[in-house]
Amino acid sequence: MPFILLLSSLLFTSCTAPSEVPTWFDSIHRIPVRTVLVQGHRIAYLDAGKGPPVILVHGFGGSMWQWEYQQTALSATHRVITLDLLGSGLSDKPDLAYTPAEMVEFFRGFMDALGVPRAKLVGNSMGAGLAIGMALTYPNRVDRLVLISGFPDRVREKLGSPLFRRGVDSRVPIWLVSLGNWFAGRGLTRDVLSEIVHDPELLTPAVIERSYLNRTRPGLIPPLMTLIRNLPLWEEGFARQLAQIRPPTLIVWGAKDRVFPPKVGQDLHAALPGSSFALIPEAGHIPQWEQPDQVNRVLLNFLQP
């Protein structure tokens, strides 16, 4: 039962009806939330600043809030587009296959819908995997590539967190995960956040509440469980082509990452010819949120024309 509850905190809720999109994205900023239809599905996103476009891509189970500290810093010189991916956050969660190739095609459609022919992509964790897929499938659409804490080959083997490894291996049915939702609470949400955030003092009640509410949005379970179960398709497809990535690439890693230890990032750096590597001290799996000043300096230095 404890693991079922833990999985529930990652993969909450069983309702599939679309939820209302709030007018504003509230964090340390107040930014209007926009929506666009991509392949008939509503996608929520933020659009701030002017200049060369940069698209920020969150990781598994995440949402646009993981980039709240990049909005002001990057939008001073770039058009910063921050989306909730299909199946996540405020975006629609349709009954689809969510294969890596399908997600790449959807992301291309998102860029087309916003009239962005070419962009700099910054992805965190599984979002980095999607950015890699774009760079391999549509290299002419990717100007520069930033991979933050992911996404390697042999994912299951390289996971440093037993908690997340059990999540990848699990075949718990959706109904059982939904049942666990009745028993799981904010304490388990904190446990999950403690795996990805190094400094426990950052996990304030407000942060835990926001993450908890994000994980209880209607329809979240099926897409996330499907994404997990599609990891073999990542291994069979994009993971084998890492050395073929051509856009200039920066790899950013938290020195205290418990999900993918720094050695994973260093190996990824070695596998990508010509890539750069930045290790961020005192940061876990989402260094852009935990150590934003350090990460923003690195990002701006790399993203500048």
Describe this protein's structure.
This protein is of the alpha/beta class. The protein has one domain: Alpha/Beta hydrolase fold, catalytic domain (Rossmann fold, 3-Layer(aba) Sandwich). The protein contains 14 helices and ten strands. The protein has helices at 2-10, 71-75, 100-113, 126-137, 155-158, 162-169, 174-181, 186-196, 205-214, 221-229, 231-236, 262-271, 287-290, 292-303; strands at 24-26, 30-32, 34-38, 41-48, 53-57, 79-83, 119-124, 142-148, 249-254, 276-280. A hairpin with a 2-residue loop joins strand 3 (34-38) and strand 4 (41-48). The longest helix has 14 residues, at 100-113. The model is unreliable at 1-17 (pLDDT under 50).
CATH class: Alpha Beta
Estimate nothing, just give the exact number of structural domains. 1
CATH topology: Rossmann fold
β-sheet strand percentage: 15-25%
CATH architecture descriptor text:
3-Layer(aba) Sandwich
Strand order of the largest sheet: 3-4-6-5-7-8-9-10
For this entry, give a set of tags.
single chain, disordered N terminus, alpha/beta, 14 helices, 305 residues
What topology does this entry show?
Elements: H1 2-10, E1 24-26, E2 30-32, E3 34-38, E4 41-48, E5 53-57, H2 71-75, E6 79-83, H3 100-113, E7 119-124, H4 126-137, E8 142-148, H5 155-158, H6 162-169, H7 174-181, H8 186-196, H9 205-214, H10 221-229, H11 231-236, E9 249-254, H12 262-271, E10 276-280, H13 287-290, H14 292-303
Parallel strand pairs: 5-6, 5-7, 7-8, 8-9, 9-10
Antiparallel strand pairs: 1-2, 3-4, 4-6
Helix pairs in contact: 1-7, 1-8, 3-4, 8-9
